[in-house]
Amino acid sequence: MNFEPNRAGRFPRNEIISLLEVNRRYNLAESTSQDLTFGELVALAGGLSALENLNLGYGSSAGSPRLRAGIAGLTGVDAQDVITMPGAAHGLFLLGMELCGPGDEAAIASPCFSPSRDALAGTGVTLRECRLAFDDGYRLTAQALAPHLNSRTRLVSLATPQNPSGVRTPLHELQAIAEMVRRLAPQAYLFIDETYREATYGEEPTPESAARLGPNVVTGASVSKAYGAPGLRIGWLTVPDVGLRERLTIAKMNSVISCSPLDETLAAIVIENRDQVLQPRRKLLAGGRDMVKTWVASRSDRLEWVEPDGGALCCLRLRPSVFDREGVRQFWAALPDAELQLGDGAWFGESSSVFRLGFGYLPPERLSAALAALSTVLDKLARP
Q1: What sign does the CA torsion over 323, 327, 329, 331 have?
Q2: 39-275 architecture in CATH?
């Protein structure tokens, strides 16, 4: 047997993995709403007795009928169009594996959640990045995406609201992008990650899903971000194309067999009680966003930001007139001693002068203290 100890892995290493290993006191790197507890979930179910007869055998590869029906209600599609996944990123990976072969290309809007890029890189496809700019507010348009599409394109991937910026692409622009993909890349599917779609602020209405934009459109989401339940490891795809849906179900069977019946049942309970779960989190998101907005205005001599449209996160940039390259390095080096955690822009395909700040994870009093600690770091390091 040949042993290759120095062989590189198929998936590129990204330091975003540190979020699973480190959780500092002032964790502004997390991108979720506040965590849902098991006690809250049991209460929503009506008590543990509601789960006593749950069969823990294998589930269906397509997903439990109860959960698929709940997801169909969220997205406006038929339940048969839904496939559950152990996370939306796994669904994107299987989509890339099924659609992309040697010589094929995939286009992706960047900066983006690194597993969304790296899951596709792991399939071996050639990636073409449509790079969105901080100075343009990270706005994605069909015109910006068009140069990255051609007859070799098999998959186009984007997110709305985006991770890391929280910037939303309006439904009319998504429609224009779907039509452009059909025209310029007729063999391609458009994947739209809607994980933060329901993470709105306060009483703002939930935007319509893109799941019904056409037969070449696949959407994905999960209970991880807006619902605060990443530990359930349940996501989904909506797939109107019958042939592709069958291929993805087979791919899921051959990679994970099925999702956990327990996780699927609990996720169904979360979705069936979504108003009770989402309303307090949306209130906290609105308060957190407003707190950050006020704080950024008070630190405008040091920082600038792109105000988010949705989600639990936003992008800020250290002003280059204040922080040179060495200043940026010192900024990141100073965070551990201040018990601070931020998302490095480099994780997402941006410069390290940009960072992702999450305002949905910490309770308000901890968020306020974290921003004060960050102010102290900025003041110590900024050039006179």
Answers
A1: negative
A2: 3-Layer(aba) Sandwich (3.40)
Nearest to 261 by CA among 232, 219, 240: 232
* CA dihedral for 210, 71, 289, 232, sign (positive or negative): negative
By the 8 A CB rule, do 105 and 125 touch?
yes
Q: How far apart are CA 265 and CA 40, in angstroms?
A: 15
Number of other CB atoms surrounding residue 113 within 10 Å: 23
Contact 121, 12 (CB under 8 A): yes
Q: Alpha carbon 275 to chain centroid distance? A: 21
- Write the pLDDT tens digit of every residue in 87-120: 999 999 999 999 998 889 999 999 999 999 998 9
Is residue 224 within 8 Å of residue 19, measured between CB atoms?
Answer: no
Q: 268 and 298 in contact (C-beta within 8 Å)?
A: no
Phi, psi for 362 (deg, rounded to 5): -80, 145
Identity (one letter) of the amino acid at 190? Answer: L
Residues in Cβ contact with 242 at an 8 Å cutoff, skipping those fewer than 6 apart: none
278-301 burial, b for 16+ CB within 10 Å, e for fewer? beebbebbbbbbeebeebbeebee
Architecture of domain 15-37+278-381: Alpha-Beta Complex (3.90)
Residue with tokens 């979360």: 270
Instruction: Give the burial class of 165: count Cβ atoms within 10 A of its Cβ; 0-12 exposed, 13-18 middle, 19 or more buried.
Output: buried
C-alpha 30, offset from chain centre: 11
Distance CA 269, CA 263 (A): 10
Let me know the angle formed at the C-alpha of 218 by 217 and 219, rounded to the nearest 5 degrees.
120
pTM higher than the cut 0.90: yes
- Going across the sheet that includes 343-344, the strands are 303-306, 313-318, 354-358, 343-344
Locate the domains of the chain by residue range: 15-37+278-381, 39-275
Q: Mind listing the pLDDT tens digit for each residue in 35-67?
A: 999 999 999 999 999 899 999 999 999 999 999
The H or E element spanning position 26 is strand 26-27
340 close to 10: Cβ distance less than 8 angstroms? no
Chain centroid to CA 191? 13
Backbone angles phi, psi at 357, to 5 degrees: -120, 125
